[in-house]
Amino acid sequence: MTQLLLFNITNGLIIGAFYVLMALGLSLILNLSNVINFAHGGFLVLGGYLAYTITPYVGFWGALVFAPPLIALVGLAVERTLIKPLYGRDPLYSLLLTFGLAFVIEDGTRFIWGAQGKPVTVPAILAQPLSDELFFITGYRLFMVATVAVAVAALFVLLRFTRLGIRIRAGTLDLETVSALGINVGRLRAMNFGVGIYLAGLSGVLAAGQLGLEPTMGTGLLMPSFIAIIVGGVGSLTGTLLGGLLIGVASGITAVFLPAASEAIMYVLMAVILMIRPRGLLGEEGMMT
Amino acid sequence: MNTNDATKPGRRKILTAAAGAAALQIAPPWIISARGEQPLRIGMVDPLTGVYAAVAQNEVMGAKLAVEQINAKGGILGRPIELMVEDSANDVGTGVQKARKLIERDQVSFLIGDVNSGIAQAISQVSNEKGILHIVSGGHTDTITGSDCKWNVYRVCNTTSMEANAVAELLFTKYGKKWHFITPDYAFGHTLQKAAAADLQKLGGTITGNELTPLGTTDFSAYLIKARAAKPDVLLVLPQGSDMVNCLKQIAQFGMEKQLHVAGLQQELESLEAMPPEARVGIWMFEWYWKQQGVPGVDKFVADIRKMNNGKVPTARHWFGYTSVHTLAGIANREKTIDSRKLAQALGGYELPPEVKLQPNKCYYRKGDHQLMTSAFVGEALGKPAGDPEDLFRVDSVVAGDKTAPAENQTGCNIKWPA
Amino acid sequence: MIVSADNRKLAGLATIWIVLALAPYWMAPLGGYTALGTRILVLGLAAMSVNFLLGFTGVLSFGHAAYFGLGAYGAGFALKFLAPSTPLALVCGMLLGGIAGAALGALIARRRGVYFAMVTIAFGQVFYYIAFQWSSVTGGDDGLRNFSRQPLHFGSATIDILGNANAFYYFVLVCVALAVGVMGFILRSPFGRTMIAIRENERRARFLGIPVDRHIWLAFTLSCFFMAFAGALYALVNNFADPRGLHYSQSGDFVMMAVMGGMRRFWGPLLGAAIFVVLQDYLSSVTVNWMSFVGVIFIAIVLFFPRGLLGVLQRRSEA
Questions:
Q1: CA A186 to CA B300: how far, in whole Å?
Q2: Is A88 helix (H, G, I), strand (E, B) or coil?
Q3: Residue C19 parent element (H or E)
Q4: Is B206 in contact with B240 (CB distance < 8 Å)?
Q5: Mean pLDDT, range A128-152, rounded to an integer
Q6: Which residues of A touch C299 (CB under 8 A)?
Q7: What integer pLDDT is reported at residue C2 of this predicted model?
Q8: Could you give the maximum distance between any two Cα atoms of chain B, in Å?
Q9: pLDDT value, residue B23
Q10: Which of A94, A218, C104, C183 sits most deeply, having the most CB atoms within 10 A of its CB?
Q11: How many Cα atoms are found within 13 Å in the side-chain-facing hemisphere of A156?
């Protein structure tokens, strides 16, 4: 029993790490630009399909390196043409726009790559379990966690020590002042959006190795990220990180005792946390209206 | 690349509001049937978008091939068939809406669909209310030809019980008697699991556990950890579509197929093609397979579909759509009527001709529950394709439908004919 | 031309009701069908309910489909397990969705803006998830089946709304008219005025001593009751209730209908629903890639016609 529990906690952390990667991208965009990006799952799918397409030429490792920045470029283009005109307006509009965009991306994926799922093979070294005892920790899962850890570390370094990052953080707290200081807020938002979509693309490449790649796969992955953000507290990236890991572990533990509730637990957790701390774990008054 | 052209739903003339066209729309059916050259419309509702899009589009393609063939031979009673395809978008409300549209506005004579059992059942309420002969092409839940059966509804694909019965004995004798289930948590999964568990009990085996997984589960590791801890001989993977792909991919990554036997009931070429080679393992049943040596008509069917499908072979789904349309045309031409009531009665016991059934065994619609007695192709998934890159399954035996189907009086079906 | 504003309003109202009342007769010649009209009415009422909150209180709920779906399940449960009565089903549906909305509203009424939207989505998904998962009660993904709307009895007279598509259309029309009447009454009441005051300037409303949070909670609850009523009607339309009706993508459709028609106008959402339903019905028959078209239309409306059709028309006439 203890062993099974430990198994599942470890496993929950692995799943949680993946939620974190996706949720961080969403959270970045939400915090600075007040945009709920419903198309985030769509960008994830695009990342996966792009990786599938270029793998024959550059290999899995090449795809991992090249696909996310390419998706980030697509994201930048979308931000500049479609989302930029909406910044001054009610957040309702950007929400509806990304909602429509998600439709277009899902259908476009089906149009280009077909409705049938695509097989993605991961490199042989990653396709092995660690040992017979720890069979559920495969090389690929460890690799996913490592990638998430590197990405998260890089993101926090970026936000803390680079000029862009410091501006993004400042903008999250008080965009008006940042703008008054002569910083080009439009560019800041674009860069920030690009970083967010980069994370979506990276999640897509990683997901393609683990899950079946098909046009609708993004929808199911979006909701856990939402919950991670709410649980952690809107406005706080550290909160998002914590929230993602927490719901992963919670669903891992639940799977031991009541497997059918292993997804429902995320929602229960969210409800309980909102009742105790209405702003989420690390959300503070004034961080977001 | 463009799967789109081949699968676009029936090209509809642009719906003009022009009075002339409108007059035809509302013309009562008896005026239409009085004119011989007027096309006869068959409506088809299938989820062309959403998670079942791939299989649904293949069903439509198969139906289109059948329409071409029949029209080339003079159609139904001299009238060409017009296939009107509507997307149910995998949503019950939309499906019901589209069924009403086809029946009320487009005045279709017959209805085909849906892949999703829930939608199939919902639209069969509509077709029943309107008294339209309806063939369920690809929804497997038992109740459609069981406790919820209707006088106007026939089904081409297998029931879940048939699928379980086809595989159970082979698994038991070959792989062992301790089974563990991974079951998708909805009606289809439950009936499939129940049927297989009943078979196992009859054979004298034991169930070590049953993991209910929510539909749309992406990570199966928690269930797989539990399943392995129970040390079964056989792990039965019952989820379908992308859930199955995810589950098998993870089984392969965990190396579990080396410690226990992986198997399942229903498997489809669409799913196998979406998996990397290492995940294509286990014993399964196909509802139809494209490689059958010496069975008349199969080679021609494969060649015809390849022409429409960018060179890809037909799947069971193509055959479902193809058979649904051929059934309607065959029975209408034999009975010389398009009256749904008469045709529904005549279909009981109707045997498919060789160029339609495309399988070695006898294939007919059972009178008592309106279920097609179609064969199960039992065999093993292949990691390395044998020859053709799409040859991903080795058929070991072809079991006739009346061997796998429960007896008529055990289906719970009691057909009530209208007075 | 001197036409008083009141007269013009009256003429507009009369036109709307005449067009709706005669729909079964003019739709068919134009290539429509009665069931399409029924669907437009029901979804239109749902969009108007969303707009009650969005357009008149200025609060964005993106999870309202949950209460719509709960209404549908409530009606289904009543018909299946309680008694074969259509009015009872409508009441039960409305209560189930409305009460759930009231409870949740209490939890989230203090949130605003994007945060409010996020939390409504997440809680909406909770209900979706329950309907999807609890298959022994709700039928899970297969939906709640085996019930159907029942004929109406008025003393000795019986109206068959099951088999007769036109009779059912008129039944739905009467229900929608009632709901819309109540909605209009509320908006004209002092409470309705405070809702608009909150929308225009929440801070000022607060200074004026309006208990803003409580008013928002009340508006949320009322809109959930309307929504659930629409959902109950939807269950009668389909003789079926399924989890997809609760999903956030359905909420998105409702919000889109409201914006498409014009969310500052009382009738805008109904017009939006009509356009949306007809467009989707038409496009999805013509091309398998209808989702792209619908998505592009969404984007275009957001970018170019954010005030919706009625908003644009009104501007034209004012210019």
A1: 61
A2: coil
A3: helix C5-21
A4: no
A5: 86
A6: 82, 97, 100-101, 104
A7: 57
A8: 71
A9: 43
A10: A218
A11: 12
Our CA-based measurement puts residue B359 at a distance from the nearest CA of chain C, in whole angstroms, of 31
Mean pLDDT of chain B: 88
**In the structure encoding, which two tokens stand for residue A146, read together?**
């490592």
Question: Which residues of chain C neighbour A226 with C-beta distances below 8 Å?
Answer: 118, 121-122, 125
Judged against a pLDDT cut of 70, whether residue B2 lies above it is answered with no
Q: Checking DSSP bridges between strand B283-286 and strand B261-266, what pairing results, if any?
A: parallel
- Round to whole Å and give the CA distance between C126 and C63: 10
Q: For residues B246 and B268, give the distance between their C-alpha atoms in angstroms, rounded to a whole number.
A: 14
Per-residue model confidence (pLDDT) at position B328? 96
Is the pLDDT score of B14 beyond 60?
A: no
Find out whether B114 and B139 touch, Cβ atoms under 8 Å: yes
Bin C260: left if φ > 0, else alpha if -120 < ψ < 50, else beta. Answer: alpha
Q: Chain C partners of B150 at a C-beta cutoff of 8 Å?
A: none
| Crossing angle (nearest 10°) for helices A2-33 and A139-161 | 40
Contact present, A48 and A120 (Cβ < 8 Å): yes
Question: What is the C-alpha separation between B344 and A261, in angstroms, rounded?
Answer: 44
- Chain C: residue nearest B5 by CA? C288
Handedness of CA A275, A279, A280, A282 (dihedral sign): negative
pLDDT of residue B59: 96
Cβ–Cβ below 8 Å for C36 and B101: yes
**Three-class SS state of A276:** helix
> CA-CA distances (angstroms) from residue B308 to B5, B61, B62, B178, B312?
9, 8, 9, 45, 8
Contact B186 C142 (CB under 8 A): yes
Separation between Cα atoms, residue B111 and residue B103, nearest integer Å: 8
Collect all residues of chain B within an 8 Å Cβ-Cβ radius of residue C240: 92-93, 96, 122, 125
| pLDDT tens-digit readout, B54-75 | 999 999 999 999 999 999 999 9
Q: Is the dihedral of CA A188, A191, A194, A195 positive or negative?
A: negative
CA–CA distance, B116 with A118 (Å, rounded to integer): 22
Rounded to whole angstroms, the Cα distance separating A65 from A51 reads: 9
Alpha-carbon gap, residue B407 to C33, rounded angstroms: 42
Distance from CA of C100 to the nearest CA of B (A): 23
Mind listing the pLDDT tens digit for each residue in A170-193? 888 888 888 888 888 888 999 999
What gap in Å lies between CA A196 and CA B280, rounded to an integer? 35
d(CA B70, CA B330): 9
Q: Check if B49 contacts C (Cβ < 8 Å).
A: yes
CB proximity C135 to A under 8 Å: no
- Given the structure tokens 């059966």, which residue do they identify? B149
Q: What is the pLDDT at residue A285?
A: 57
Residue of A nearest to C112 (CA): A289
Residue B113 has pLDDT above 80, yes or no: yes
pLDDT, mean over chain A: 88
**Nearest-angstrom CA–CA distance, B354 and B176:** 37
Q: Which residue has the higher pLDDT, C318 or A42?
A: A42
What integer pLDDT is reported at residue B33 of this predicted model? 43
**C132–B214 CB contact, under 8 Å:** yes
- Looking at every residue in chain C, the average pLDDT score rounds to 89
CB distance B51 to B241 below 8 Å: yes
Distance CA A113, CA A108 (A): 8
Of C145, C281, C287, the CB nearest to B8: C287
* Contact pairs from chain B to chain C, CB under 8 Å: 120
> With a CB-CB cutoff of 8 Å, which residues 73-112 of chain C face chain A?
107-108, 110-112
**Strand residues in C103-218 grouped as ranges (E):** 152-154, 157-159
H helix and E strand count, chain A: 10, 0
